[in-house]
Amino acid sequence: MKSREQEYKEIFIAEALEYFDALNRHISALEKQPQNDQPLAEIFRLLHNLKANAKAIGYLQISDVSHKLETAFSLIRSKELSFSEEVVTVLFDGIDLLGELIRNIDNPEYGEPDPVLLRNLDIIVDNLSDSAIELTKVQKYNTSKNLTLSDLIYIQIKKLDHMLNLVGELIIDRDRINSISRELNHDELKSVSSHLYRITEDLQYSVMDARLVSVGTLFNKFPRIARDVASAEKKEINLELVGQDIQIDRNILQIITDSLVHLVRNSVSHGIEKPDEREKKGKSRIGSIVLAARSDRDNVIITLSDDGKGIDMKQVKRAAVSRQLITEDAAKTLQDSDVLSFLFEPGFSLAKEVTEYSGRGVGLDVVKNAIDSIGGRISIDSAKNKGTVFTLQLPTSIAVKGALLFEVDEIFYAIPLMHTDQVVAMDKDELHEVGDILVTDIKGETITVVYLHELLNADEAEMRLGDKTKLKGQVQNIIVVTYNNRKLGLIVDKLYRQQDIVVKPLSKPLDNLDLYGGVTLLGTGKVCLVLDVSAITRYFINNRR
């Protein structure tokens, strides 16, 4: 894996060479039309950006030459320097020098820039009038020998999206061919099918790899954000960044950007206490916030933790009862994970006052919706006066997902592995009817269980989710799914296997069915409905209410 510094350098070089080509193009245009302000403004912008980028990454020679050229063009723009033939020659030489410096960043044998050329740039920059210019004649660069192309190119994300969609279609056909080859038991077809499988898999990961960027490209923006909020609220904080080198799909990083900004602001604004308050609690006056990323098999886990005041569970319960999200009696028996799930309800807030940065809980439904849209998961863990941890579990790809296949009423279904906590087989007698629902104990945790056939097929008026008599057989296959800090057991008829699937949206009018997140085609040619775990969980909770 590339280091963060190497990745930044490659991005800088690719961008700088694009700037170099654009500068040559705009100077040529300006030479033909000296009165045209548009190429002049563009030249100035390119040089200013190149100067800033080079200085930020430590290439001071490039920054210095860019600065001299930027100054020269600012004099031309302000009419203090005319765009004469002599001046144009020096400026072209200066641009050529920039190209040479950019191309030789990694060349240890490259020496210092031509001091005669630099003197001419200084003369232009420091001149008081055109008549004061006495330029030294320098050998023009032989550009025909210096024409090179960058090893790096920029590709529009939408082009990579299109490629990944095509790979998805190829995966569907690949699985179909694999299935046919097994059915026919034809040796040559099996060999071709196996080869196709390997090539398709390599192609899939190659396209996905081309879309990867370091999370550091986003993480490194947060120290300033956190500092601004802390300064406005007169708090002291230390933000630690961990795992900036972890790679993630660029589209996924883009989608979660606003969510992370919201979470970091909330952590500073309503998680971390004022310095005096922290001191009274025996804490350091300086609040600690850690934004970390790590890889977990095919997923990326991002955590945001603080050592602030935590979330008051009793306060959340009171707020949930007052908003009629739950009855007072039911609230008394809730587990902490269920209590915290209320924070993701639309408009739910614990803030006592409205601030510029909102209250902890405000907007968390928007955060959750953004994470849901990419098939990810978000959860909260909190302890009063100890702090809060937000955990974002994100997929590596939006188009291709790992899924668990199963059957209900001879219909194939799939659930994304992202939302699958565990799979268990339980005796019917281990399920208990409590009110109108079924519950069971799994590893010491009481979990609500639903017969998926009943949830998907029964009319709401006739729905009896807690009726054990409708279950088939003695042993029940249960998929435990997790969403919004809640766990729910789904009883299915048959379990099959895990496999990568390509999720396609449902066509109208089926796209209005909330419980389904899309459809995929299995290798056997059969259609498989993909369940939307978030919609199922919401539907079940609303039905109970």
From TrEMBL:
Segments traversing the membrane: none
Gene3D superfamilies: Histidine kinase CheA-like, homodimeric domain, Histidine kinase-like ATPase, C-terminal domain, HPT domain, SH3 Domains
Enzyme class: transferase
KW Transcription regulation (keyword) present: no
Reactions the enzyme catalyzes: ATP + protein L-histidine = ADP + protein N-phospho-L-histidine
Enzyme Commission identifier(s): 2.7.13.3
Keyword terms, alphabetized: ATP-binding, Chemotaxis, Kinase, Nucleotide-binding, Phosphoprotein, Transferase, Two-component regulatory system
Chain positions with Phosphohistidine modification: H48
Record keyword Magnesium present: no
Residues annotated as domain CheW-like: 400-542
Domain Histidine kinase: 195-398
Origin superkingdom: Bacteria
Residue span, HPt domain: 1-105
GO molecular function: protein histidine kinase activity
Role this protein plays: Involved in the transmission of sensory signals from the chemoreceptors to the flagellar motors. CheA is autophosphorylated; it can transfer its phosphate group to either CheB or CheY.
Protein name: Chemotaxis protein CheA
Species annotation: Pontibacter silvestris
